[in-house]
Amino acid sequence: MKIIVGITGASGSIYGLRLIEVLKEAGHQVHVVLTESGEKVVKFECPDIYERILSSADMLHDVHNIGASIASGSFRADAMVVVPASMKTVACIATGVTDNLLTRAADVILKEGRRLIVVPRETPMHAGHLENLLKVSRLGAMVIPASPGFYHLPKTLMDLVDMLVGKICDSLNVENNLFRHWDGNME
């Protein structure tokens, strides 16, 4: 599959970086676009893995290059994941404001009827945030809040990251063993 990963300035950039890593390991073509704030946050939160993971992407797109391949419906991306998704980016997607390559690519994915997953990482949320998330859902996007579960009995921070990335992969139909899926057994 061809998958676009968008990373915005919300905290939680480890989710986006880990998703890129998992998708590449699974053999998928990965196109990445970071907002300017997203790049700053990634460098701040994950300085030790930033270069290694981004260099594994098939293509790292400039957020200002509105003429990039992913800005067109004729680019046959199978899906796009915005992870983490800032509330500004969610608002732009909800209202069709395509002020950069990331929001343009998301708009194209929606207009072409392809899978868009938005992973908000904000708390608490006010009514405007919730309304915009409802709007993107009504437009056809899947909203997966960055709120990992605990039924897989995590022992490390990366266990929590992998659980959420595993849920994203499940939604993309990407096979993974990133966490123990619930089997109904509490023993």
From TrEMBL:
Family: Belongs to the UbiX/PAD1 family.
Record field: catalytic activity: dimethylallyl phosphate + FMNH2 = prenylated FMNH2 + phosphate
Record organism: Anaerovibrio lipolyticus
Name of the protein this chain belongs to: Flavin prenyltransferase UbiX
Lineage top rank: taxon: Bacteria
UniProt GO molecular function: carboxy-lyase activity; flavin prenyltransferase activity
Gene: ubiX
Annotated keywords: Flavoprotein, FMN, Prenyltransferase, Transferase
Functional description taken from the UniProt entry: Flavin prenyltransferase that catalyzes the synthesis of the prenylated FMN cofactor (prenyl-FMN) for 4-hydroxy-3-polyprenylbenzoic acid decarboxylase UbiD. The prenyltransferase is metal-independent and links a dimethylallyl moiety from dimethylallyl monophosphate (DMAP) to the flavin N5 and C6 atoms of FMN.
Positions of dimethylallyl phosphate binding: 151, 167
Keyword check for Magnesium: no
Binding locations of FMN: 9-11, 35, 86-89, 121
